[in-house]
Amino acid sequence: MKKIALSIVEKSSFEYFIIGLILLNAVILGLETSPAIVAEYGDWLTLGNQLILGVFIIEALLKITAVAPKLKLYFGNGWNLFDFSIVVFSLIPATGEYAMIARLARLLRVARLISTIPELRLIISTLVRSIPSMGHVLLLMSVIFYIYGVAGYHLFHEHDPTHWETLGISLLTLFRVVTLEDWTDVMYTAMDMHPMSWIYFVSFVVLGTFVVINLFIAVVINNLEEAKQEQLDKLQRPPTKDEMLRELRQTQKVLASLQNKLERQSARID
Length: 270
Fold this sequence. Notes:
Blueprint: H1 2-9, H2 12-31, H3 35-67, H4 72-75, H5 78-90, H6 99-116, H7 118-156, H8 161-164, H9 167-178, H10 183-191, H11 198-236, H12 241-269
Helix pairs in contact: 1-3, 2-3, 2-6, 3-5, 5-6, 6-7, 7-9, 7-11
């Protein structure tokens, strides 16, 4: 049973089948947002959801069976644990007080696309790895925000209290400026009182938007390169005993199949 489960989950066709089901599930969830479609095909959509959930449950059982009794190989993998948690949450009944949780859990099935596609897993792993490195960048950004927030309050709060009335509102205004969302309107209002106010805004945009964002990008790219290098190192590591035995068995099967074909061909010639 273990060998059968292992042979199934290791097939690329099985992986593509699961990806197809995830995409189909995403389409069904999108169709459920249309009252007209739900009214006419609601039962079919519900059946489709249940069938897809059933396949996901079978997939989890196959993967657990493939590594049994060493369940740590399955639950010790963060992506497997993520998939298993989504399946468990999807079993919550979609009725009563838990109806909203059940709907959100079904929506999480679409997120399984991340754990299924290796390239997406690499991107998410890179972002998670980048969080500690971004601490210093966030600290630098906080210092810049605080300095400009206090300065902006003292410069503009009397002329434009809507955007600079308190330090908190000033920081929110600076967040609007750093996202480049209509920041010129705030600048022109300030320039009505202080014509040289453009220096304050332009310098903040240069520091807060271009410099800091580029630092974030640099951190992510650096971690992405490190993650890729780690994957290459894993691919280049010496094969384990189990992997060698598995490859040997597959080679033996291929050789046996070739021998049978040669024997049949020789028998036809004779």
